[in-house]
Each structure stands twice: as structure tokens, then as C-alpha cells.
Amino acid sequence: MLKRITVLVLASFITLSLTACGTKEQPVKSSNLSASFGLFKSEQFTPTDVCVTCHVELHSQWSGSMHNNAFRDPVFQKVYQFAVEDTDGDRVVEDFCIVCHSPVGFMSGEIPPPDGSKLSEIAKNGVQCDLCHTVSASTGIGNFALKASPGNTKRAQFKDAVSPYHETEFSGLHTTAEFCGMCHNVNHPVNNLSLEKTYTEWKEGPYAKEGIQCQDCHMTPGPGVTKPNPGKAAIMGPDRPHIYTHSIVGGNVAVPTLLGSAEHARLAEERLKSAATVEILPLTKFKPGTENTLQVKVTNKGAGHYLPTGLTETRQMWLQIKVTDGTGKTHFSSGGLNKDGSIEKNSIVYNTVAADETGKATHKVWRAEKILSDYRIPPRQSVTEKYQASIPNGAKGPFTVSAMLRYRSAPQGLIHELFGEEEVQLPITDMAGDSIVVK
Ligand code: HEC
Ligand code: HEC
Ligand code: HEC
Ligand code: HEC
Ligand code: HEC
Fold first, then answer.
1. Number of structural domains found in the chain
2. 78: Cβ below 6 Å to ligand 2?
């Protein structure tokens, strides 16, 4: 597969979308990609320090968000540089990774070189104000399927906005999940394998049917649908019945922490804690000296897509179960952490495992040829996990059975591989738990 990648030039994105017809996912209009490379100069986009003069609050919410961080993100940087080396500086991989993580860098042709040394400030600001607000149309779903129209007209949901600095225009697109879907479905640029499909998961789930958009959850002050949020869109603007917030957090607690935005880390934690419920089902029997069946029900209560979603080849959500006796001694454990930070072998982990061309599991999504397993929880659905806990004869109650659903944005081993000596430790968030005591 790699050989094939190497001989491909960027223009062949166009043919790719035609030849890769065996997929079940949304069609990818990859031709859009090659069409937009080097199409604009970065100066055609207005820097965020202009917008901040009037949109003070929105700017402070956006700074420190994963959209602002998309290119500087140290985890992205390590993986990206690794991908570049691993594919021998192949332009298809190089350009593909950049298109969503530094859209202006891609569209202005300021990448290559992949180290970002030629990038303008605005390109380093990842997904920023002017990129989103000058989009004039979507050209499909996934793989950066958007029409950029940099210029003085800024588009969003208002039909009556007046600004002393720029023209405004109502854009229905900005009010729908299809706007987010332009980037939040990712297909492999060569074999079209679906690597991320948050939009599709939402589209096929109950929230889409009820008309609840990504914005209704992610652009509100807290988890759940917390409309309305009255306020001002600009310091000199009128009072508005509802303003969409711009922190747009997901499950990434690690990167905001690393880059010094405690507020975004806190918001992401809050969001993770709103996503699920965990319930230990009533025990029919529980006896020392026998195998005891424990059942734990995990429900995706608050996420509008699968749980987890996004780059699930890297994300880890797992169940930690423990049975302790009256003296506090542990007799059964699953989902605990080993000394090196890896999860115990017999554990339930919710994620996606991709395989390379030899069929071996890999975190290198650019080498992914197929999906080996995908075990996650669809929106508003539950899974029930079963455990056999053998408790030794003579162990004395009362016994405590506890369950905790935990999340981190990558396996610690992968982080160790990427960061080496730097010793980066990823935070783990306890999302939801339950415990019961049996006599
Ligand atoms: C000199 C002040 C000022 C500057 C600078 C400014 N804006 Fe605005 N902007 C406003 C005002 C005022 C409104 C109208 C607010 C309202 O009606 O509630 C507005 C409205 C908007 C809207 C809503 C458009 C709609 O129709 O829904 C967007 C989007 C927007 N601005 C984006 C930006 C971006 C991106 C930048 C930086 C490139 C920027 N603005 C710079 C003052 C400014
Ligand atoms: C079509 C848009 C798109 C393209 C192309 C894309 N990404 Fe991403 N990437 C995303 C989105 C959206 C997320 C966030 C998903 C999530 O939070 O799980 C993301 C997240 C990531 C993360 C996780 C960062 C973290 O802090 O945990 C890494 C690493 C990453 N991408 C690497 C890559 C690499 C390497 C490539 C090229 C092979 C690539 N991306 C191409 C959209 C894209
Ligand atoms: C990831 C894309 C994205 C980025 C980055 C982004 N916005 Fe927005 N913004 C939106 C969307 C989408 C809406 C409309 C939400 C809706 O109506 O459902 C919006 C709404 C707005 C509005 C209307 C008032 C409101 O908040 O509801 C203004 C003004 C605005 N944005 C300015 C900005 C500024 C200034 C920045 C940078 C500091 C910025 N945006 C960054 C996507 C973005
Ligand atoms: C231009 C492409 C683009 C658009 C449009 C876009 N995003 Fe993103 N988004 C990204 C990228 C790239 C990242 C990942 C940055 C990283 O992890 O390094 C991201 C990250 C996120 C995250 C944080 C993920 C985490 O792990 O915490 C959320 C939540 C999110 N986006 C929601 C949205 C929503 C909601 C919309 C629509 C209003 C939207 N995005 C529109 C490219 C985009
Ligand atoms: C009903 C509310 C709701 C809706 C609708 C919703 N989300 Fe989420 N989203 C959440 C919650 C809660 C989380 C945190 C749990 C998780 O990581 O899945 C989350 C997490 C995320 C993440 C981070 C995933 C990770 O773990 O890396 C991304 C990216 C994201 N959402 C994008 C989107 C996009 C794009 C849409 C629309 C297509 C959308 N969301 C619709 C509630 C929602």
C-alpha cells in the first residue's frame, strides 16, 4: 500500500474518489482537496487578533479550544512527524494531515515543509475564526469538503447582523451538523477506509432525527442541551436571545492541560462526565468459594454519537471493576492499570482497532487497511458486560463491588513511544461509576 501511496501525486485525489467505490460511508469528494491546495494566500484570511477587538468573549472561548490547538497540539505534532517519516515524506499523507489541522497552511501551500517553518501565524492557529466564518458552501461530508471564500463577508446564523468592520451574511449551513461534518468524518486518502465518522454516527442516530445538531451540545455553556444562552455576539452588538459558545470541547483533557488552558480541560472533563451512566445490576447470588456473575450496564446517555467517537483508533474508554472483602483486600479486578500505565489484559475497552496491510493491529492510521474491531456504544444505547468473579472460600464480607468507566485520549504506551524522554503522562477521567455492598 505504501508503494502505491508513494507513486500517487496529489492530483490523484480526484481519481481516488472515483475508484474507491466499495465503501459504505458517505462519499468523499476528495477532488475538493487538490483543488484547494495553494489556491489562496494566507493574507487573504483575517487574523484572529483583529476579530478579538470586538468579539472578546467568543475569542477567549475559542483560544485554548482544540480548534485553535489543532496544529500546535503536541500529540498531533508527534503523530504527524511520525507519519511523515514513516511514509518517506510522501506528499499525499503530508498534505492530507494538514488540511484539517491547519486549513490555511494547506490552502496557502505553506506546508511543505512539514515542520511548519514556513507557516504564517494564522495557519498555526489551526481551525480559526476566519476559516469557519468565510466558508460559503459545503461540497459534501468529510475530508474537508468545504468551499472557502475568504473575504470581507462573514457568515453565521444571524439574518440582521450589522458590523462596522465587515459585511455579514446569513448562512443556514452554519446552523447544521453538516457544517461540522465537513471535517468530522475522515476517510483514508488512498483506500477510503473510514477512520473517523462522528458525523455519520450522529446522522444515523436519534439526535439527528430529533433535529439536535452538534452545535446544540458543543456550542453551549455546559453539557446537555442548555439553550437559551442570552448575551452579545460583539461588544457593541445588540442583546441576543441566544449566543453559541466557542470553547467546543470534546473528550480531550490532555492537550488543554499540556498547553495551559485549565478552563478547557475542566469543560472537557465535565463533558465526559455527562456522557455515560454505569449500573451494577442486582446480584442474584454472591458466595465465597464459587464463581459469581457480575453484570455491569453502561449507557451512552449524553453523547450525540458513538461513545467514544472521533479518532477511536487512539482513544481509550474502559471499565474498571473491583471486588473487595470486608478487610479491603481485592479478590477480583479488571480494567486496572499495570505499572507501565497499560490497561490489564482481561479488560473491556471501548475503541476501534485498525490493521495494516499485514493484518497486524496498528495505531498508524495512515497505514490502516481495515478495521479489525469496533466496540463502542451507540447514542442512547446500552451494553451489559459480564464478569466471572471467583471469590476464595473463607473470604469475609461485606463485599464491595465497584465499577468505574474511565477515559484517556491515548494509550500511555503510545504516548511514551511518541514523546520518549519527555515523560508525558496523560490524565485519566473517571466518567461514571457505581458500587454496591453485599453482605
Ligand atoms: C470592529 C468590530 C468587529 C470586528 C473587528 C469584527 N467583527 Fe464580527 N461582528 C461585529 C458586530 C457588531 C457584529 C454584529 C453582532 C450582532 O448583530 O449581534 C458582528 C457579527 C459577526 C458575525 C455574525 C454574522 C451573521 O450574519 O450571523 C460573524 C460570523 C462575525 N462577526 C465574524 C467575525 C470575524 C471572523 C472577525 C475577524 C476576522 C470579525 N467578525 C471581526 C463586529 C466586529
Ligand atoms: C478531514 C479532517 C482531518 C484530516 C484529513 C486529518 N484529521 Fe486528525 N483529526 C481530525 C479531527 C476532527 C480530530 C478530532 C477527533 C477526536 O477528538 O477524536 C482529529 C484528531 C487527531 C489526533 C488526536 C490529537 C490528540 O490530541 O489526541 C491526531 C493525533 C490526528 N488527528 C492526526 C492526524 C494525522 C496523522 C492525519 C493524516 C494522516 C490527520 N490527523 C488527518 C480531523 C482530521
Ligand atoms: C469550527 C468553526 C468555528 C470557529 C473556529 C469559530 N466559529 Fe464562530 N460560529 C461557528 C458556527 C457554526 C456558528 C453558528 C452556530 C449556529 O448557529 O448553530 C458560529 C457563530 C458565531 C457568531 C454569531 C454569534 C454566536 O456566537 O452565536 C459570531 C459573531 C462568531 N461565530 C464569531 C467567531 C469568532 C470571532 C471566532 C474566533 C475567535 C469564531 N467565531 C470561531 C463556527 C466557528
Ligand atoms: C475545518 C475543519 C473543522 C470544522 C469545520 C469543524 N472541526 Fe471540530 N475539529 C477539527 C479538528 C482538526 C480537530 C482536532 C484537533 C486536535 O485534536 O488536534 C477538531 C476538534 C473538535 C473537538 C474536540 C475534540 C476532542 O477530542 O476534545 C470538538 C468537540 C469539535 N471539533 C466539534 C466540532 C463541531 C461541533 C463543529 C461544527 C460546529 C466542528 N467541530 C467543525 C476540525 C474541524
Ligand atoms: C447530545 C449531545 C451531543 C451531540 C448532538 C453531539 N455531541 Fe459530540 N460529544 C458529546 C459528549 C457528551 C462528548 C464527550 C464524550 C465523548 O468523548 O464521546 C462528545 C465528544 C465529542 C468529540 C470528542 C471525541 C473524543 O473522545 O475524542 C468530538 C470530536 C465530537 N463530540 C464532535 C461532535 C460532532 C461533529 C457532532 C455532530 C455531528 C456532535 N459531536 C454531536 C455530546 C454531543
1. 2
2. no
- Say yes or no: 324 and 228 in one domain: no
Q: Distance (Å, rounded) from C-alpha 313 to C-alpha 379?
A: 19
Residues 177 and 227 in one domain: yes
Domain assignment present for 364:
yes
Integer Cα distance of 296 and 387 in angstroms: 8
Q: Which domain holds residue 284?
A: 275-438
Nearest CA to ligand 2 atom 30: 76
C-beta 166 within 6 A of ligand 3: no
Q: pLDDT tens-digit profile of 274-297? A: 999 999 999 988 999 999 999 999
Query: Contact 116/108 with Cβ under 8 angstroms?
Result: no
Same domain, yes or no, for 343 and 239?
no
416 lines ligand 5 (CB under 6 A): no
CA of 188 to the centre of ligand 2 (A): 11
pTM value is 0.95
Q: Model confidence over 22-67: pLDDT tens digits?
A: 333 333 334 456 678 889 999 999 999 999 999 999 999 999 999 9
Nearest Cα to Cα of residue 96 among 193, 23, 178, 226: 193
